[in-house]
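stage 2 :: seqdesign
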């Protein structure tokens, strides 16, 4: 539980796993453009790859939302 709530580890995961391979463009960015373009021709391995590289960003968004909720409750 501590691991998914640690924003530093999630940030490192976003920069490494989330963006790897870095060239010619971040892998998750290419998959995101493919999905937003309709995802035509995507196979199971492409969807798995998209979820695998996108998971750190989902966790980062989750942490940001929880911090915002916590901040608004305390004010």
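stage 2 :: out
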């Amino acid at each position: 539980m501590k691991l998914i709530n640690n924003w530093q580890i999630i940030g490192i995961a976003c920069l490494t796993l989330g963006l790897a391979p870095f060239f010619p463009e971040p892998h998750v960015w290419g998959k995101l453009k493919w999905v937003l373009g309709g995802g035509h021709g995507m196979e199971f391995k492409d969807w798995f790859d998209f979820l695998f590289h996108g998971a750190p960003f989902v966790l980062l968004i989750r942490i940001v939302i929880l911090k915002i909720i916590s901040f608004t409750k305390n004010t």
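stage 3 :: structure notes
- The chain has one domain: 3-74.
- The chain has a mean pLDDT of 88.
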